[in-house]
């Protein structure tokens, strides 16, 4: 059965039936004109939105509907993590081609709901619209954070050390492998199809006030370094030999590939003990120092005894 054969109201009811009951702070959830929430006391609301567009962010030749559902939520949760916030609710909008199978909607929603349960996020509403193509999955996610624990891109200072979580370049490698072999099941392919947002680390980083600035790496390390540097009014030097690169990937993949969704953050040397506390609580996640922020506003890469301009990351428009 296609979504057109099922119809809008039946499709909404079908989605609603696949989602768990909302938590107590959701006063009005799915089924009304808008959701109504009880605000968290003494906390700020953090709001983000991101889309997954067929042919731009995913290809059904090597991604399943379940992959798309997971990734659509994961990329938003990564933004919440980069702000040091705890996620609360999500709004899901689906722009669907009429011929799309209803069972694929089920798979997409089930996968998204599974990640939402792990992240303690409640899907409380959204919208369904018809599209001649392509498929678009759009989410808005909110979180909460205490005022003094908010992480932004603009708090970096010259002399701060730069760190990243995990390894980089895996998603870019995974995309290359999947384009060559649609059935590839490598770790890199999984990193591309189903990234894991670093929620717990981001929350602890904000809670301990260990970092001065933070950004999630959606468009490559080169882009993330520039985002922090330009927002903070500083430059940076990155040590190429220190960058943790996914096995099989290249430095170019790490710098410019994008979609790793690791966290890049700046830490004052004076606050290193606070970072050590976060690392002890998240000891299964690698954290690597890769460079430093500088008063000189240039963005540089040190490699093989030479200093060169840091490559840019991925951009949707322009150069």
Number of domains: 2
Measured by DSSP, the beta-strand proportion falls in 25-35%
The CATH homology group name of the largest domain: PurM-like C-terminal domain
Task: List how many beta strands DSSP finds.
Answer: 13
CATH architecture of the largest domain: Alpha-Beta Complex
Q: What class would the helix/strand composition place it in?
A: alpha+beta
- Order of H and E elements: HHEEEHEHEEEHHHEHEHEHEEE
- Computed over alpha carbons, the radius of gyration is 20 Å
CATH topology of the largest domain: Phosphoribosyl-aminoimidazole Synthetase, Chain A, domain 2
- Determine the N-to-C terminus distance: 43 Å
Share in helix: 25-40%
Reading off the top of the CATH hierarchy, the class of the largest domain is best stated as: Alpha Beta
**Uncertain segments of ≥5 residues (pLDDT<50)?**
none
Give the strand order, joined by hyphens, for the main sheet: 8-10-7-11-9-12-13
Report the major sheet: 7 strands, mixed
Total number of helices: 10
Silhouette: globular
Overall mean pLDDT stands at 96
Oligomeric organization of the protein chains: single chain
Task: Kindly summarize this structure in a few lines.
With 319 residues, the chain is α+β, with helices and mostly antiparallel strands. Helices cover 34% and strands 25% of the residues.
